[in-house]
Amino acid sequence: MTAVxxxxxxxxxxxxxxxxxxxxxxLHDALSVYVAAMDYPRGTxxxxxxxxxxxxxxxxxxxxxxVLPDDAGAVDLRTAPLLAIAYGYSGAPRQWWHQQVHxxxxxxxxxxxxxxELLADYFELTELHVHPAAQGRGIGATLLExxxxxxxxxxxxxxxxxxxxxxxxxxRLYRRAGFTDVIRNFVFAGxxxxxxILGRRLPMPPAxxxx
Length: 211
Ligand SMILES: CC(C)(COP(=O)(O)OP(=O)(O)OC[C@H]1O[C@@H](n2cnc3c(N)ncnc32)[C@H](O)[C@@H]1OP(=O)(O)O)[C@@H](O)C(=O)NCCC(=O)NCCS
Known about the structure:
It is a single chain. This protein has helices spanning 20-25, 27-38, 44-55, 96-107, 112-119, 139-148, 169-176; strands at 14-18, 62-67, 82-90, 122-130, 155-161, 180-186, 195-201. It is α+β, with helices and mostly antiparallel strands. The chain has a single domain, classed as Gcn5-related N-acetyltransferase (GNAT) (Aminopeptidase), CATH 3.40.630. The protein has a seven-stranded mixed β-sheet. A hairpin with an 8-residue loop joins strand 6 and strand 7. Helix 2 (27-38) packs across helix 3 (44-55). The structure holds coenzyme A (COA). Coenzyme A (COA) binds at residues 37-38, 128-130, 135-141, 160, 168-170, 172-173.
């Protein structure tokens, strides 16, 4: 995908649900948004593609995207420029992430019963990325709300890199959406960077109705 540089003349982005087939067809573009948003080195796309593909097979998988409609306001999902992508699935005990978080919760003092209760029924928000050229316009908040709407799980969990003073858009977005700490400064096996695991109960009220 070529770089997307929305300006005053571009039509407003449209948020859409993505089927497995639609995401697979646009996987390269979705991964390009992810690499640009996270400022990862080029080539990261190739490592992540098999994992994103595999995730589409997990129970409860759901994806949403923000795309630019054409001049007539129509959206052709095969070609529409992709501005943002988010997906997740139901957490389950055999998943690596679930096991890592369970271990981390026990290490940081969560009572086993409480950890089990939370991990028994949650949606893992696996990825949420907005292309840098499209950030700061509420697209991330809209994708988050759409992805979580009507979920059957009791809670949503996610991980995000620790940053000083929680001073980035991801942290502000999650705090505004009512996410609270589950584990802080957690280092996943095989990684060196500290992450926070954040969560909130579902359903998540619409932005206007949140305290
Ligand atoms: C984190 C991320 C997904 C958030 O998406 P986003 O669209 O930029 O975020 P928001 O929807 O919250 O909008 C961001 C800003 O726009 C403002 N905003 C929200 N709605 C708005 C609207 N309708 N119109 C104008 N501005 C709006 C918000 O106040 C917010 O300001 P702040 O972040 O300074 O507090 C995105 O910035 C991103 O991909 N970042 C890089 C990668 C990353 O950190 N990913 C998460 C890792 S877990």
